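User: I'm new to structure prediction. If I give you an amino acid sequence, what do you actually give back? Let's try with this one:
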Amino acid sequence: MGTVDYFYISLSLSVLVLAGCVLMLSLKIKEILENVRSVTEDAASVSTDILSIKDGLKTSIISLVQNLLEKAKKGGEKKS
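Assistant: Good question. You get back a string of structure tokens that encode the predicted 3D arrangement of the chain. For your 80 residues, that looks like this:
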């Protein structure tokens, strides 16, 4: 075997190593993107929960104020 043969063998090994590195990199990117998707789904769920709590609080406060105003109106009529 001559030097050219050693060159081709080392070149083919380096291409295999490069292909392995690219494969590992793509697997890591896939894992990162799955984690990002999971986090965004969790954030969307939390956002939906917060919005429903906010709407419930609005409804409760409006009902409370309405009841207080009705009681004040009825109380005002009784005193007259």
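You can read the tokens as a compact description of the fold. Here is one thing that stands out. DSSP finds one helix and no strands in the chain.
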